[in-house]
Amino acid sequence: MTQLRKIIILISFKLPTAALVFCMMLMSCENDIQMVKSLSQHKLGVEEGKNIISLMSNGGKTTAKLTAPVMLRYQTDTSKIEFPKSLHVDFYDSLTTVESQLFAKFGRYMDNENKVFLRDSVLVFNRKKDTLWCNELYWDQAQSTFYTDKPVIISQQNPRQKIYGQGLRADQNFKWFTLNKIGRVNTGQQSFINVADSTY
What we know:
By secondary structure, the protein is an alpha+beta fold. The chain contains two helices and twelve strands, in the order ααββββββββββββ. Strand 9 and strand 10 form a beta hairpin. The chain is globular and about 70 Å long. 17% of the residues are buried.
């Protein structure tokens, strides 16, 4: 009988304890309305990558290599990728020799347009050392071209000249370019061509 009495006492002790724990759980399930609202709002998903190396190819041949210290991919209705801490791109010829290079402090890849918007200290140069400087530039990957409507400075080695202009279209290997305007355009500087200078 003592064993049966112990079981009855144990059961009678566990039932009130279980009921008390259940009641406490029900009372603790009350949610703060602001907290529920904030959870139901759409949170912007951002993926971050570091020390990025991305190879681009066309027809099985490597055409470019992009490197960047940081890449942010935003998961929104339209995919957007940003390079907030600079990017560098090497463009290759058919023999995978570096033909031109690009540097910018900021870049934004627009996936639906297959274009990259470049901003802040944009620099493009080829192996002949022809150089383009500007503050904003678009890289159209589908057309393999660069374009802008902003002021640009171009330095060429052969013939040795420096050109100030506004608006440009060029191929991504910087073999050719066309300027919309040449001369005094928002830079306050005049173009000069074939000017002898002792610093060269």
